[in-house]
Amino acid sequence: MSKSLPLVFTAPRRGMPATHLADLDAAGRQAAVAELGLPAFRADQIARHYYARLESDPLTMTDLPAAARGRVKEALFPELLTAVRHVTTDDGATRKTLWRAGDGTLLESVLMRYPDRATLCISSQAGCGMACPFCATGQGGLQRNLSTAEIVDQVRDAAAAMRDGALPGGPGRLSNIVFMGMGEPLANYKRVVAAVRRITSPAPDGFGISQRNVVVSTVGLAPAIRRLADEGLSVTLAVSLHTPDDELRDTLVPINNRFPVAEVLDAAAYYADRTGRRVSIEYALIRDKNDQGWRADLLGRRLHRALGPRVHVNVIPLNPTPGSEWDAAPRERQDEFVRRVNAQGVPCTVRDTRGDEISAACGQLAAEGA
Asked: What pLDDT sits at residue 288?
């Protein structure tokens, strides 16, 4: 089933939105309220409304002076994202949202409620420039990076939806964030790291979600993986490897021509060493492309050698896009692949996938348009 929301048509204006509260750190907020002629304590007060109370409109912040609310709204709360359409499945437990940014750019997020947690999959770019041929987002190319606030506001909206019981099961709490929506997070490095800090810092600086419940995914930008390792964060790194051999990966993940498998795994090992966190390896299993038994054996050997016990493989049944030549591997081949990776001493499981019927693969809803 689907629920359509009224469309908001705005004049196209390409590029990043104006600076929003969520783009600013504590010092930036202090400077912004000073420029508005407000006392310093208003900076944290406004931030608590946004991060703790999940309010995005200063006109509802009744403990602000009435005369200041409009100025705060104009200066610190530009329009970011407007929901174009919500589409639900799994009896309402999975909700995908198509967003329109102020310049008309389309992007997506997916909120998934489980018995023990609520996970939000967020986008870090509109489109993607990595050109992986089996990915709907990659087929559409990169439109632009998202601002820090555009990334963060996806989280605020989902946290409010959970608090308000918008998904079946009554009021709850958003607990997990995965940067696995549209885009390559590490290609928008500074804004993604800033967003991670907003997501994980306690109020008034952020939402207070545990860093250990945040996953940052990458197709393998090795220098950026090393840079992330030195940020002092403890988020989980997920590397979309998809095959252990360079010959095929050059085709499946074209950035492999710059950063081959050995370099990516070396960077992943550095990340594990620096953070003490186990690295997740993402492997979309594609029929007759990367699902052979010998590739499972090679994957297990290479991961065991590079990362030892600090790695886990998530096998992902491919969610094919309409008209695509790429299809999911048969179940029996999937089971054999998992068995053979485990036999190499590397933990390997199949990820629970949701949303095939609502175009929940990254980029599919945006490709269908508003």
From this structure: 96
Write down all domains in the chain, each with its CATH number in brackets.
21-76 (1.10.150.530), 81-368 (3.20.20.70)
Q: Tell me how crowded residue 353 is: count the other CB atoms within 10 A of its CB.
A: 13
Catalytic residues: 108, 362
pLDDT value at residue 243: 98
| Both tokens assigned to 226 | 């090393």
Residues contributing to the annotated binding site for [4Fe-4S] cluster: 128, 132, 135
Report which secondary-structure segment, H or E, holds 301. helix 293-307
Token readout for 58 is 């200063």
DSSP SS3 for 73: helix
Which H or E run contains 51? Answer: helix 41-51
> Which residues make up each annotated binding site?
128, 132, 135, 183-184, 217, 240-242, 319
- Residues 182, 242: Cα–Cα separation, whole Å: 17
pLDDT score, position 3: 39
pLDDT in tens, 106-163: 999 999 999 999 999 999 999 999 999 988 888 889 999 999 999 999 999 999 999 9
C-alpha Rg value of the chain to the nearest Å: 21
Burial label for 50, CB within 10 Å (0-12, 13-18, 19+), is: buried
Averaged pLDDT of the chain: 92
**Which whole number is the average pLDDT over 3-28?**
69
